[in-house]
Structures are given as structure tokens and as C-alpha cells.
Design the sequence.
């Protein structure tokens, strides 16, 4: 259920393994979506699917830059400076309309059946299988993957959604087209995401292909306005320089950010991507964790289907535990971003500890499951202390 990055990745990998897969997607692709900045950890999964880098649709991303234009503080974090080991030194910036459609067509090419403009409305699980009801029919299956994104069908039906109160809660964003030469020069050649530090949230500048730019604002308040985004654009010297003379498209608003599903799996079903958890987008973890979850789930499910054990309630608990480590680590980083002096003491440190800096870059790049990251261990210990206090 759902054909975004989580659903398409799951469908493609399962179909590639010989599983009979049906995708029901409520929209007609291509469709606009936010969340354009990927992490290096997604590249191996894209390669599994047979999706290579295409400079016409995907923009090279070398890392992340953080700015506080009020104080003049600046920090650059290239993915190439992460902890040593098997990793990628770059990621991608993508226009989600084109990227998501490409993933869905890849899943289709690998053998998945795809129904667009068909919305899943309900799921019934019994001992022998699953019945999925849509606005156009009923389907019988051995297993159901909920990749319905922030619609979070199963979580909302089961009332298992819990909000993260301490993270960002709303966003406003827009796109600019036809950036001028000065704007392109200001963005730089490395395709880095630019994160702007603000008193009550943060802003982003994401360079896209064909002289396009995504600009957004995340606030910790429950609501946000188009005027707040305009105020960011007007008050930021960097943003003004980048968008000077460019054509602005419409502004969009999104609320109800940052939540988790407390029951992401059960008999014959698993929730992946935003239907399982949506953390604050400040560190661009959404698509990366969605694809990671789809990959881990698919590997587990293929074996279970072969053995006839897909109905076991505890089947996906190891996958949930695997993802839980990522949610915990990234969540701790988000918490520190909003509530501690970490930005001042670490992000903008004049002489940072090399090992800690490399560990931070590894977390920023989605390399979260290693045992030798001193920064990650420090981060999660600090978060536990904050929760206990």
C-alpha cells in the first residue's frame, strides 16, 4: 500500500526475488513531494534496484553546510570525511516527482503490478492471509506492507501514532526556477544542502538539477504561514543572493510533523517509511530510512514466504529493532539540535575533535549501524539522560 520510495523499494526488491507483488498507490505519478535530499546510505539500495546516477534528474550532493547568518558561524560537513570503512562519499539531491516515478517504474519493470489512483482503505488480517480493501476493489494476499506515508493507514486505524513534541512540527516550502549565474555560483559545485539556523527552527536550500532550488522553513510551532517563509527569504542574505531574478513557484504548507508508530508490525503486516516513523527532516533521514527499512523487510519476507512463516506475529521484530537504532540515533541528534548547545559546541567548534567530527558525519550520512562511532554512543547516552530527567 503506497508507491513512494518505501513502497517502490519494497515492491522492486520483492519482485526481483520472484515474489508476486501488487502496489496500490492513491496518486497518479509523477506527483509533487517534499524531501529532496538523500543520504549516501541510499546509494547501495538504488544500485540493487538498478537505478544509477542521472545528472539530468539527480544532483550530486557532497555533504551539508550549516549557517547562522546572525552570528556569522559556518560549518561544512563533507560525507568524504566520515569514519573509515565501506561507505559512499556523496549522496544525491532529487526532484521527488521524477525520482519517485522512476522508482515506481523500476518496481514495475522488475515485475510488480502497479495500480495508480487506487487508495487502500482498510486491511483485514486472518490466519490464512490478508484482505486489502481499496476504493476500486478487494485483494487477497499472503502479506501486506503499509507504505502509505504520513497517511499512516494502519497506525491511524489502530491509534498507535505518538507525536514527538520536541521536534519540528510544521513546514513551509517553495521552489525557484531559472536561477541566475550568481545564484548558481553561490550554491557551489558540491551540491550541498544549506541549513540555516533560526531562533525557532531552521531553513533549507537544496540545489536541484536544471537551475532549480528548493527553499523551506521548519518551525517548532504547530502551525506555520507562507508569510513566515517569505520573511526567511527576505532576511537571509544567502537566500536573497541565490534566488535573485529567479522565478518562484507556489508555496506549500505541511503540519503534523514528527511522530512514530508504536506498533509497526504484527501478523502478516509491516509498516515501513513514514507509516512507521517520521523524524524532523533537518538531517534528511526520511527517504534513507524508508529505503533501508524496505530493504531489510524485503530480505526477511522473501525467506519467510519461502518457508511459509510469513504469518508469525514476531517475524519483523528484528527489522523493527534494526530501524529502532536508527530512529533513536537520529532522534537524539534532532533533540540535541533543538534543545542543547551541541550546535555551538560541536557543529561550529573552531578546533573540533577529529574522531567526534568524523562520527558526526557518519551519522549525517546514514552510516548508523556500526559499533565504533564514539560520537553516536555519546549522543544516545545524552538523549537517555534527558529522557530520564
Sequence:
Amino acid at each position: 500500500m503506497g508507491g513512494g520510495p518505501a513502497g517502490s523499494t519494497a515492491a522492486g526488491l520483492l519482485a526481483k526475488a520472484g515474489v508476486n507483488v501488487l502496489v496500490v498507490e492513491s496518486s497518479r505519478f509523477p506527483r509533487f513531494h517534499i524531501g529532496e535530499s538523500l543520504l549516501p546510505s541510499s546509494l547501495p539500495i538504488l544500485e540493487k534496484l538498478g537505478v544509477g546516477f542521472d545528472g539530468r534528474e539527480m544532483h550530486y550532493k557532497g555533504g551539508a553546510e550549516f549557517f547562522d547568518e546572525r552570528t556569522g558561524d559556518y560549518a561544512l560537513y563533507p560525507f568524504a570525511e566520515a569514519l573509515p570503512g565501506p561507505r559512499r562519499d556523496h549522496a544525491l539531491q532529487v526532484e521527488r516527482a521524477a525520482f519517485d516515478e522512476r522508482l515506481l517504474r523500476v518496481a514495475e519493470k522488475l515485475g510488480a503490478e502497479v495500480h495508480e489512483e487506487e487508495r487502500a482503505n482498510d486491511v483485514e488480517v486472518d490466519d490464512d492471509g490478508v484482505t486489502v480493501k481499496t476504493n476500486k476493489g478487494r485483494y487477497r494476499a499472503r502479506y501486506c506492507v503499509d507504505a502509505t506515508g504520513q497517511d499512516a493507514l494502519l497506525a491511524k486505524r489502530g491509534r498507535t501514532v505518538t507525536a514527538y513534541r520536541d521536534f519540528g512540527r510544521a513546514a513551509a516550502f517553495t521552489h525557484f526556477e531559472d536561477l541566475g549565474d550568481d545564484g548558481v555560483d553561490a550554491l557551489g559545485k558540491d551540491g550541498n544542502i544549506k541549513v540555516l539556523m533560526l531562533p525557532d527552527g531552521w531553513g533549507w536550500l537544496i540545489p536541484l538539477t536544471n537551475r532549480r532550488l528548493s527553499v523551506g522553513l521548519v518551525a517548532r510551532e504547530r502551525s506555520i504561514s507562507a508569510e513566515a517563509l517569505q520573511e526567511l527569504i527576505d532576511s537571509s542574505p544567502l537566500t536573497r543572493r541565490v534566488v535573485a531574478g529567479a522565478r518562484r513557484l507556489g508555496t506549500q504548507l505541511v503540519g503534523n510533523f514528527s511522530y512514530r508508530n508504536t506498533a509497526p508490525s504484527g501478523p502478516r503486516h509491516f509498516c515501513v517509511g513514514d507509516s512507521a516513523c517520521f523524524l524532523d527532516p533537518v538531517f534528511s533521514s526520511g527517504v534513507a530510512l524508508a529505503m533501508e527499512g524496505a530493504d531489510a523487510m524485503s530480505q526477511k519476507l522473501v525467506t519467510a514466504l519461502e518457508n511459509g512463516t510469513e504469518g508469525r506475529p514476531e517475524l519483523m521484530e528484528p527489522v523493527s529493532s534494526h530501524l529502532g537504532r536508527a530512529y533513536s540515533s537520529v532522534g537524539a541528534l534532532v533533540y540535541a539540535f533543538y534543545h542543547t548547545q551541541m550546535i555551538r559546541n560541536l557543529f561550529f567548534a573552531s578546533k573540533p575533535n577529529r574522531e567526534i567530527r568524523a562520527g558526526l558525519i557518519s551519522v549525517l550520512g546514514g552510516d548508523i549501524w556500526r559499533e565504533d562511532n564514539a560520537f553516536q554512543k555519546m549522543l544516545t547516552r545524552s538523549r537517555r539522560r534527558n529522557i530520564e530527567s
Q: What stands out?
A: The chain is about 35% helix and 25% strand.
